[in-house]
Every structure is written in C-alpha cells, then in structure tokens.
Amino acid sequence: MVQEQQTRRERQREATFDEIVRASRELLAEGAELSLRAVAGRMGMTAPALYRYVASIQELVDLVAFEIDKAATEVFSAAADTQPDDDAAARLVCATVAFRQWALANTREFSLVFANPIADSSCARRDLLTASASGLLFTDLLHDLWVQTKYPIPRVSDLPAAVAEAVTDPLIPANVEQVPLEDRGLIWVYMQGWTMLYGVVTLEVFGHMDPRVIASGEMFIDTVRSFATRIGLDHDWKRLEPLMRTRLAG
Amino acid sequence: MVQEQQTRRERQREATFDEIVRASRELLAEGAELSLRAVAGRMGMTAPALYRYVASIQELVDLVAFEIDKAATEVFSAAADTQPDDDAAARLVCATVAFRQWALANTREFSLVFANPIADSSCARRDLLTASASGLLFTDLLHDLWVQTKYPIPRVSDLPAAVAEAVTDPLIPANVEQVPLEDRGLIWVYMQGWTMLYGVVTLEVFGHMDPRVIASGEMFIDTVRSFATRIGLDHDWKRLEPLMRTRLAG
DNA sequence: TCAGATTAGTGAATGGTGTTAACCGTAAAC
DNA sequence: GTTTACGGTTAACACCATTCACTAATCTGA
User: Fold this and answer.
1) Alpha-carbon gap, residue A44 to A90, rounded angstroms
2) For the CA atoms of A246, A247, A248, A250, what is the dihedral angle to 10 degrees?
C-alpha cells in the first residue's frame, strides 16, 4: 500500500531511526549512560546529526522507553505463554513474576520506562504512554481471567465519579473496546492491581527495602497474594504460590 | 560540654555546612536543578570550594535528601498532632494524607528522597537511610495504633525465614527497640503498609496514572482503605474516610 | 610570640553534557 | 539540468563535575 511506494530516502531515514534506538538500547544494556554523543559515536556519527531525527534528548529517551516497554512486554507475554490458555490465573501470575524479575535485572531500563515523570504532559509523551504495551498486556490478562472466573468487580455506578469517568473513557493504556460499559469496573480492579505491583517492584528496584526481603522476594509474593484474594483466587493460591516460587527461583 | 569549646573554625565550618543544605533546598524549592555551581553561586562561592565539605555531588544530594526527609517529617508529624493522642487511627490517617499531599506538592523533593536508587550501597548512604525520619514516624504511629487496638499481627515464627530475620534485626528505619521480639510481626505489617502507600503516591507523583484519578485522590483513598481493613480499622472507616476527604481537600 | 601546619577559599584546566548555527555535498524533485 | 531539500559536518556556547596548584587566613605547639 502506502508502505510500498516508500522513496529511497524514506527507507534510509527509517533505517537510521531504528539504528538510533538500537544503539541507545545497547548503551543502556552495557550499563553506560544514555547521551547523544555516545549514541552518535556508536553509529559513527556526530551528536548534532541526531537532531535531524529527534528534537531533544528527552524525546530520544521517551522513544527508547517506548521501545524498551515493547520489547519487555514480549518477555512478559512469553512468560504467560508457558501456561495453558485456559489457565488465566497461572498466566497472569507468570507475567507478573516476569515483570518483577525483569525490573530487578534491568533497573536502568525500568527507571526509564516506569519511573520517568510525565509531568510536562507533552503530547508525544502522553500518546506513547497511552499506547504502553505492558499496560495492554496486563489488562488483557486480567480480562481473560475475568472471562474465565467472573470474579467480582464493582459496578461503574458504585464507583466515585472521577473513577467512573476514567474507566469509561480511559487515557491510560487499556484495551477496553472489547469490554462493555457495564463491566468497566474491571479497569478499576486493573488499576488497583497495577498500583500494588508497581509499589513493591519500584521499592525493590530502588533498594528502599530491607535487602533480605528483596532477595527473598517475600514482599512481592505477599503483595501478589493480597491482590490474588482481591480477584477471587484464594482457593487457587495453594497451587499458584509454588508456581510463583519456582518462577522466582529459576 | 564538647560543644562549648568549639573553635572558631569549627563553628564557621558548621555554619557553612548548614548554609550549603539551605541553599540547596532553596534551589530545589524554586524548581531549579541542584548543581554544585548553582549552590556555590548562591552562597557567593565557587564550585570547587564545596569539595571541602562534600566528596561529590552525590554526597550532597544524599545529605540534602536526608534533611528534606527530616523537614517533611515535621510536617507529617504536625498533621498527626491535629488529632488527639488517644486516637491513633486518626493520627495515622492524617500523617498519611500529609505525606501524599506533600509528595504531590514537592515532586522533585519526593523524587530525591524516595525515588533515589540506593544501589551502590555506599556506607554513608545506607546509614542515612536507616535513620530515615519519616520511616521512624510511620512505624511509631502504627505502633501506637497497635498498642491501642491490638489489631492482629503475624507471629514471627509464622513469617518466612528471610522476613523473620529482617524484622528481628532491621536495617530499614524502625524504632524497634521498644517492641519485644514476639511482636515484631508488627514490622512486617509496617512494611506492607509502606509498600502500598509508596506504590500509590509514586505512581501519582510520576503521573503514570489517569490524571482524573490522581486529581480526585480516589486511588489513594482506596489504597488507604485497603490497608485500614488490614489493620482492623473497618469498623472505623465510616469516620475515617470523611476525615481523609476533608484533609485531602484542604 | 612566632614558626609551622592545617584549613578554606581561589582560578585555571580537563573532559563531559545538550544544543544552536553556519556550512556543504549529495540525493531527490520538477 | 537546475533547484530544492535533506543529512551530515565543524565550530561554538553554556552548562556540568572534578582535579590541581596556589594563596591567605587560622589554628597549634614550642
């Protein structure tokens, strides 16, 4: 279609664009700082040339963060796929563990994607956030579980006004087209879960927690169990906890 | 005592030290970046002079973070003190709300104190963390509540090994000398609460949440309620929630 | 009291950062 | 085939942390 009649220049441009984010991610993975000079140097260019592709270093960071999120989501998704389709609970648990393990193993990447202020509310930034891949994955997993088990969710009419508005017309990542308006309480449950997960993992990544607790992962397990009861998985916990622990160890 | 026979130089040095953190906090409050040049410039000095007082910019940041934490804790403590001594629940709730409001009003300070990686585990850093004033306040408030209501806490013997170790010999801020070994399950409850509180507030501060939910504070309220049930305050929630909402609005 | 040592500051310099401006050759467009 | 736009360059500016050599003031001990 439109893709096919790409001019040579456009293809070239896109290729360098890809190389920019690739070089950036390599730098990050090597533990180096992300800087225009470093990125440019790695591709045999000079720093000012990058301004033909990004308007500022912040835009580059946002771009890279978006790509990292996409790539990490592949990992989480693969973790979920180790479990059968009809076992949504296990799939959710495995993705959650994968998220935590990835965060601890790639702390600078985690900081970039999940601990980066969105304060300035620049349009580009918000758009990227809204399309967050990991957000979509976890809402999907939670939705799948709900379809299978129909755990209790609040009625939209019972939610506070601001929340009702947010779940019926969400800006935050959520594949909500598929879920009918009456069941949007599900989004609220998702937000609750995400808040809890985010809390433990960020605390662990930043090291603001007893190192022995971090190493053991007990607070993470405790948090997941807490949310598990919230979504009616108590009866299943005897099975899910060992699964979690093996996943954490491996 | 020792203080009195301070030599002139020592007094001078301490005064300059205080001025450094004061200037740093002023910069932060004005929304400027914290840099050696800026701090030195504000005090009519040059940047290299600051190396007589701190070994690196990171050490300055840690120092300032420590002082900010101390000052902020005064604010949280004052919020608790608006409630009578025998109403530990209300005191805890008010301090919690104060924490959240302070974090949202002073996001860069919050990031400095609570979203700063402790990765390098430099001794100085760890020591400061262990002496975190806000951590001490919240453990105290939770302890007071427990003394008053004796809400259920896990037995240390029921806790996972790593957790038991962490609560009997804590590195993380906690005034635990006063609480006997059998009751150290309290520390675990504290860690759970802190994790939840940290999760919401950090998510809100970084803007990784629907702006309408942030503005309304509903997720924050929801999280506090969730923890309130955890510490046996369900029966009191009818009273505590309105208190929270007035505090959030004011 | 006075010499020697310690201390708190300076200016200059190094090497790093993001960013802007002027320029230039080459590839695309008409 | 001429013109235009693009993608790169170099040079420069304004920051940043940090180190070094040096100076002037203060403290210390004989």
Assistant:
1) 46
2) 80
Quote the pLDDT of residue A117: 86
Q: Are A53 and A20 in contact (CB under 8 A)?
A: yes
Per residue in A81-140, pLDDT (tens digit) is 999 999 999 999 999 999 999 999 999 999 999 998 885 545 455 555 556 889 999 999
What's at A110, amino acid-wise? F
* pLDDT of B4: 47
How close does chain A come to B207, measured CA to CA in Å? Answer: 5
Q: Which residue is nearest to nucleotide C20 (CA to C1')?
A: A48
Could you give the angle at which helices A57-80 and A8-29 cross, rounded to 10 degrees?
A: 70
The closest alpha carbon to B156, from B187, B193, B124, B119, belongs to B187
HEC-encoded secondary structure of A32-46: CCCCHHHHHHHCCCC
B9 touches strand D (CB under 7 A): yes
Q: Which of B178, B193, B172 has the alpha carbon at shortest distance from B89?
A: B193
C-alpha to C-alpha distances, B141 to A15, B62, B77, B95, B188, nearest whole angstrom: 57, 26, 9, 9, 14
Chain A residues closer than 8 Å to B242 by CB:
none
Over residues A166-195, the pLDDT tens digits come to 999 887 666 777 789 999 999 999 999 999
Residue A108 in tokens: 């600078």
Mutation to test the B interface, candidates A219, A221, A244, most B Cβ within 10 Å: A219
Over residues B195-220, the pLDDT tens digits come to: 999 999 999 999 999 999 999 999 99
Q: How open is the CA angle B78-B80-B82, to the nearest 5 degrees?
A: 75
Residue B12 CB lies within 7 Å of the nucleic strand C:
yes
> Measured in Å, how far apart are chain A's first and last C-alpha atoms?
45
Residue found under tokens 């607070």? A219
Mutate to test the interface with B, among A188, A208, A223, A245 (most CBs of B within 10 A): A208
pTM of the model: 0.94
